[in-house]
Amino acid sequence: MVLKLVGSFLVSLTAILILMPLWIDYLRKISFNQSVSDYSLEEYKHKDATPIMGGVLFIAIPVLMTLLFDFYGSMRADNIMVMLVFVGYGLIGFLDDYLIVVQRKNDGLKPWQKFALQLILAGVFYLGYRTHAHLEVTIPFAQASWYLGPFYALLIIIMFSGSSNAVNITDGMDGLSAGCVVCALTAFLILAVKQKNITLSVFICSLIGSLIGYLFYNVKPAKVFMGDTGSLALGAVLAAIAMVLKQELTLIVIGGVFVIETLCVIIQIGSVKLRGKRVFSYTPIHYAFRLKGYTENQIVHGFWIAALLFGVLGVFVGLH
Q: Is the pTM of this model over 0.90?
């Protein structure tokens, strides 16, 4: 098992380090560049010259490495569902990125189109998941579970949609989102190893290796961005992993940074609409720290530390 985990990590890391420069050059040639969000601070507008869709590689490589290092285990229903969600949400993000680049504006897929595609994937996951897993939520510390039956399908929709959009919201500074996801995945890796889920552990190791390789090209100054291709896929796969490991509620703790980012945006929008006043100086909240005078690197590293602490806490919760 150890050889599989270390091997998948190292091969994925090496593959990204070798292939990413070639992928970046190709993206530049076809002018697939970032379209900066309207919610970004003015100082980030120059990033519209940075290639997008870096997420394509760190989606493809972990899937291929998992098949290579543990093919028979990859054919198990739960592992197929995790990789299907990962690739499926990546394709939704890819389509969104493609439309943004081609149309030269930050619209992409319409919200109802994106939600409809996410709904289809959630339905497929539910149909496959219910054939071999219990439709219940494990309650930490209580040594109990809450049976949801068909309502588990609603939970899947909420978790997939919420987690994918939360990672997308957090993806606003160089290295921020990818680094936080690495911390979350490391926590899930410990839980997967504890459950002796070898194939899922191999997949997570491969994904961590791929993301660390990606960070070599994404930390400030970023040479490539993951785009919605990467952020939607990463958010959804965190939710899928949590479900397969029966750690649905633990995801809230492990993904604490993403939860806080999303809650701040929701609170801000609600306050502006209801009271006409802001609660925070800016959202997503990582930009508020920039307005307070912190450098981008200080903010990113601070969020990484917070994500690591949430991961440690999440492991403790998940084991109890």
A: yes
